Structure formats: C-alpha cells, structure tokens
Fold:
Amino acid sequence: MKPSRLFFLIPVVLLLILGLQVLLSMGQISITYDEFAHLPAGYSYLKTGDFRMYSHNPPLIKLITAFPLLFLDIRLPQSNYWDSEEVPVRPWFYGMDFMRANRTQYLHLFFYARLMTLFLSGLLGFLVFLWSREFYGTPAGCFSLFLYVFCPNILAQSGLATVDLGTSLTIFLAVCCFYHYLKARTYGPTSLQLPTLFLSGITLGLALLSKFTGLLLLILYPILLGWQFIRSRGKSRTTNNRRQAMVIPFLGIVLIAFLTVHIGYAFQGSFSPLGSYHFTSNFLKPLNHPLLKNIPVPLPFYYLKGFDNQKVKEEYGSETMLLGEVSRTGWWYYYLFVLLFKVPLPIFIFLILIFLRRATGHRRPRVEDIFLLVPIGVILITFSFVRLQLGIRYILPILPFLFVYLGQTVHFLQKNKKTREFAPCFEPVEDLPLSLSVSGEEIVLRKSQGERDTNALQKKPALESKKTWITALMMGLSFWYLISSLSTYPNYLSYFNELAGGPRNGYRILSDANLDVGQGLIQLKKYLTEQRIERINLLYFGWVDPGLYGIQANQFPHLSSHGVYAISVAYLQGIPFIRMDAQGRVYRLPPEFFEMFKNLEPEAQIANSIFIYKIPEKS
Structure:
C-alpha cells in the first residue's frame, strides 16, 4: 500500500478505536447526575414542542440525544413539575417521573441516547483531523486525531447523554466556518464569499443552540475579525471603506445565527416583550423596569429565560473543592489547576517543545495559529472569573483547538523523508548556492558541490543524532499518552494525571464533575456480588434508583446504624448532601455526619468515586 493511502486509512482506524473504547466503557458507567434530567427534557421537547423543562441549557443537543426515543414505545409522564419553577431541581423530579413511567426499558433508553453523543464525537474527531491537516499537513492531522481519540476527558464525555461534547463540536465547527469565511473574504474567489457567510451564520446559531457557552463566540468573532482586518491591510481586494466592508457581513452572520436560534425553538415565544419576563438574576434584573416592558426581545422566550436561570445559578455559586479547600465563590485559577491535573502530562511537554522551537527561531508562528489559540484564551479567561466551577466539562471546548495546534509537533520529524513527502505545510528547504559548470558543449546549472559536501560532512552526524533523539522523544511521549489513557479504562470520568497521583488520588485534588457524577453503580453492583454483600447503606451522588442495577440499598433518611456503607466521595469532600421531596422540602445531612468516615480507611474504592466502609454493630 502506498504511504499516501496509508495516511488516509489512519483516521478511519483511529475513529473506529474511539467508537470501540466508548462502547465498551459506557456499558460499565451508570446513568450520571445530569443525564438523568437531560434526556427526559429532550424527549419532552420532541413530543410536545414545549421548551419549558430544563431551560437552563438551550435544546439542540438534548433534542439530538433524545431523537432515537421517537422510534420506541416511550411514555411521557404528566408531571406536577412542568410549571413549578419555584422548585430549583424540578428537571430531576420530572426525571423521577420519567424513570417510573418507563422503568422496564429505562436503562436501554440511555444506551441509545449515548450512541448519539458518540456519533457527535466521531464528527468532532473527523473535523479535528481535517483542520489540522489543512493547517499543518496530513501527518499532523493524524497526530491531532490520535490525541483526540485517546484523551480521557473526550472519552468520558463521548459516552454520556449530556450537552458538553455536542457543544464542543458546534463551537469548533463554528470557528472553523468563520475562518473559511474570512479566508474567502480576503483571498478566496468571490463565488465562495456568500456560501461561507451563510454557513458561518448557521453554525454560529447551532453553537448558540447547544449551550450558553456558545455566546462566547460573540466575543471571539470580533477579536478574530479585528485581527484579520489588521493583517489584511494592503492585501485585500477591498481598498475603500474596509471596516464597513467587513463589519456589515459580520452583522449578517449574527442575523443568520439569530434566525437559526428562532428556528431551533420553532419560533416559540419569539420577540416577546420584556414585560412578559420576570428576571431574577442580578445581571438581567435591570430589564424588569416598567419603562422597558413593551420592548420586544429578538430571541425566543425560553432562550433568554434559560439564560436568566443559568445566571442565577452562577451568581449563587456551588460548593466546589480544590486541593482540600471547599468554596462557593471559587478561585480565579481554578480551571488552570483543572487543566494541570486532568490533562495528560505529555500534552504539556508537546506544548513546551513548540514554544521552545518558536523561541529559538526554528519556526515562525503560523498565521492560522490565532484561530486556535484565541478561542482557547477566550474560553479559559471567561470561565476563570465565573463562580460556577464544577469541572473540566465546562472548558471541554478548548481541547479540540488544542489538539489541532499540537498537530504541528510532527514538524520535529521533518528530516524524515516520508514525513516531508506528505506534509505540504512544512517549512521549505533552504536554497543552496548555485555554480556554473561547462563540460565540452554541455552547460550544467547545479548546486555548489564543494560547499554542499563540506557542510554535509560536518553536519550529518549531528543531524542524524538530533533526528534520532527527537524521534525517540516523540515516540516516548506518544506511548506515555496512550498508556496513561488506556490504564484508566473504563473510568475516564475520574481520570487524573501522574502529577495528581493518578485517578485513585484525585479525590484529594478536585471534586464534582472532575471525579464523581454518580457513574459508579454498575461497578458497585459487581463489587457487592463478588463480596457476597446483599444490602448496603447508600449515600449516592445521583438520582437513579439503584434497584435498576440490582442493588438493594438503604437510602437517606432510612439508614442503618451499622453494616456496609457506600458513600460518594463528593460528600466526604465536604460537598453538601441535599435532597428534596415531592413537596419541595429539603433534606440535608449535616457535614459532621461524614466526619467519622474521614477517619476510617475505606475497604475499597469503586470507580474512584464511591468509597466502601464497614461499620460494625455496637455490642
């Protein structure tokens, strides 16, 4: 097989490996905290066209994951929580009704929904390959896809029916389309400008429909537009009113995006007056002023209402833990530590190699890099000052951009003839001096042989040595990355790198979605069967009935004073244990309840997120 064909076979193999890993792992991961509410809400959108339930996030990804349920015999329960907005966790109470109504096939529903997320993950991986290939060459595209396929955080989210992976896809796709619009606008043929403009607007709308994180694109795009304007001065065809010529099409992109959002909500509540809202977040409360009540809002009703609900949640904050300290207000450096401990360490070494190469002048920064680094910076800086700090899934969209950027590390192997052959974006070969040779009647224009041979004799040993060293380093880092990921199977959700002490030590570093989202019930059942334990006391960070997994458990407030306790690590970290009954009454276990467990050595760790303790009966 020709090398060129081999390079195009590699992405297919890698995507198949991605699917295999996710399929095998999702069968060992129980329904998580957010899935429990997302899927019933998405199905309610499809069946009723009503977007009231769980409006904290826009509906697109929930609609996609719920789509397979349309082909099954599913009951949509009539619930008292449809209109009870005063109950903060009503989507989860509605999830309880949905679980009771479909108990016999409940677990299978989430398998089909998770398959949709896996499909979206495959699309994102393919886009990572294509964009990296466009920027840095085919080998770079393969390497970027390799990093994507074996990233534990990508693998974790690819097997869940939640919105984070799908949001990463739509944001990445939107930036990619915006790049191609600017490229066509500045240098491309005129015939491509209008199609790329429409495509950029539609993909921006899809990002806005996925999660409110997509709103950051309204900050990102002007930055990229301004950079492109400065860079293209004197090169663009447009010579008069260049600012106007770029700003007006940008406004067109935004209008197309807003139209896409209205279509996504089926125009439900479109252009409702401000007086029809009652904003509760400090951010939007000024809009409750009576003088503004007749102003129409150019957004669907539940889009702005959902944003208001999300802002309330963000302003209130949520308990999170970092390095043993629990806080509701968070830390500006929280997500920096999340990346430091949750991203495999070879990623940082690859980054250091790129920066060192740039610093020593071996490689100038490419103009395309701005479209990869600026999105990472905007997302990371924004979330660093948000009080809602619940895990790496909030900044998951930066990872595809990072993997594309790291694709250029294959340039370190550019002395390899086969690598150079299929990397059109690699550095050009430097010109050598020319000499004129006359032999009889033949005139030959050739490289200066003496100088070339002298340089070759002097540099060849050094170059060969350098080539061997760099190749060994790249192979070693890639193998480390691969083993670090595979050794975590199937518990990618609780992955921590070696700097954190590995997954089993992660509970000392971070909490919540970095570690424990209620994913361990299947593995808990396996442990109980092996240990021949029939009944346990369960304090579980999730909502699914453990009986669906064959677990017989006493749950709060009906706990026994002795026996086997299975406790989600989040509660041991100091995250409040809170539950609400059907009347909205709050049940709260005092923090001191868990103090005695902190002084005990657990019998076992299940999925790195559930600790097992044995409390003997008092004599």
User: Anything to note?
Assistant: The chain is about 50% helix and 10% strand. Residues 430-476 form one domain. The longest helix spans residues 449-486. The chain has three domains: 3-409, 430-476, 503-615.
